Amino acid sequence: MAFADKILTFYRSLELPNLPAGVDAMNPYQDATAYDLSEQFYRRFYSDDKPRRIIMGINPGRFGGGLTGVPFTDPLKLEQRFGIKNDLKKKVELSADFIYTMIDAYGGPKKFYSRYYINSVCPLGFVRDGKNLNYYDIRELQEAIEPFVVDSIQRQLDFGIDRKAAYCLGEGKNFAYLDKLNRQHGFFKEVVPLSHPRFIMQYKRKHIPAYVADYLKKLK
C-alpha cells in the first residue's frame, strides 16, 4: 500500500472522544469536498513507499488544514500552487505562508514532500466560540484526547515513518507535551523543537530568513 493510501485510510477513520462543553471538533475528512482536495494532494506527492520523517504541529486551524484536510495548506495555496481548484473561501493562513516559504527554500514541494510528512500532535482541530483552540488551552480537553493522540501517533508510524527524529512545531507547550509522550511511549529517538510558524509570522516577521535557515539546518 502506498504512503498516500495509508494517510487517507487513517484520516477517514478519525473519530474524537467526547469533548468538554463548548468545544467543537473540526473533521474535514468527513466532508466530501475537503476529503477530495486532500486526496488529490496526497496522491500527487505520496504515491510511493518511501520512508519519511514527520513534522508535527499543534492541531489544524480553521483556515488551513481544518478546512482543506492538508496541514498548513490553505485553499489559496492548493489552487495557485498545485492547480487543485476549489470553491472554499480563499483566506490566507499565516502559518501556511511560512511553511511554503521554507519548502521553497528547501527545494520545492516535490523534494520536500518526498522526505517529510506533516501532521499535528492532534490530527483534528478544535474551535470554541468560533475561534481556533489549541488542544493544550484547556486541561480537560488535553486529558480527554490523550488516548486519541497516542493512538494516532502509533498508527502513523506504520506509514513508513523514519523514527530517528520527529520535528515539533512549537518550542513551548506543544514540544513539552510531545516530548513527554515520546519519553513515555518511545515513538522516536528524539523530538527536535522548531519555532512555530504562527509565532514567526505574527511576532518575528522581519526575521523570516533566519528562521527558514534554522529550519533547513535542523531538517536532515
Automatic annotation (TrEMBL):
- Could you tell me which residue ranges the Uracil-DNA glycosylase-like domain spans? 47-220
**Name of a matching Pfam family:** UDG
Q: What name appears for this protein in its UniProt entry?
A: DUF4918 family protein
Organism classification? Bacteria, Pseudomonadati, Bacteroidota, Cytophagia, Cytophagales
